[in-house]
Every structure is written in C-alpha cells, then in structure tokens.
Design brief:
This is C-type lysozyme inhibitor domain-containing protein. Keywords: Signal. Helix content is 17%, strand content 45%. It is an alpha+beta fold. The protein has one domain: Lipocalin. Strands 4-3-2-1-9-8-7-6-5 form a nine-stranded antiparallel sheet, with no helix packed on it. The longest helix has 14 residues.
Length: 119
Amino acid sequence: MKRVFLATITASALAWPSVALAQPVFLTCTLSDQGGESTFDVQLNEAANTVSYFIHRNGMTVKKPAIFTPEKVLFNGFEIDRKDLTFRRDNTQSAFYRVTGGPAMDVGKCVIDREERAF
C-alpha cells in the first residue's frame, strides 16, 4: 500500500506543471533630457515584480515595484517598450516640469546587456 501511495505521489509531482521563473534581464538605457544624455543600468526582475536601476549622472541606485505587461514595463514614471526597447520618462509629475514647462516626456533607447557575469 505504501509503495502504491508513494508511486502515486511521485507521478503526480512529476506531472504537475512547473513554473519556470525568468532570470533578471539587464539593460543599458540612455535618455535624452534637458541636461543632455543620461545613462541608466536597469535590471528587470519580472518574477519579483521589481526594477532596479543605477543612474550614472548622479551615482544613485533605486529599486522600485514594477508593472510588467506583454507590451511594456512601467516603474516610477518610466516605461520600457518590450518589443523595440524604447525608454520613456514621464515628467508631468515632477516639480521641474510644473515650474519650467519643460518637455512632458523624455525619450531614449535601451539595449540588452549581454555581459557575462561571474555571479
């Protein structure tokens, strides 16, 4: 009886669909804004619904919750198109935009970082 039970449990476990969690995706993104061009190192972690990014201009690292849709990734006023890797920042919520009336949207591009990492 024990063997039948164990065989049934084992077969059920093997037949159960397993969810393959995607590895984080690393991007290098540039954005043209009023201060020139900004570079961001971006890590998309769809399994955790987060995005981490490093801003080269000021040396700041940020980790934020993100929304992953089939078309784009949305986080902290930024948007990355999942098909053509267009990178956008919505400025309409910033104090700078409200005071200066600068551009409502900064636009740039991302490339997938295929650098091999040791860990």
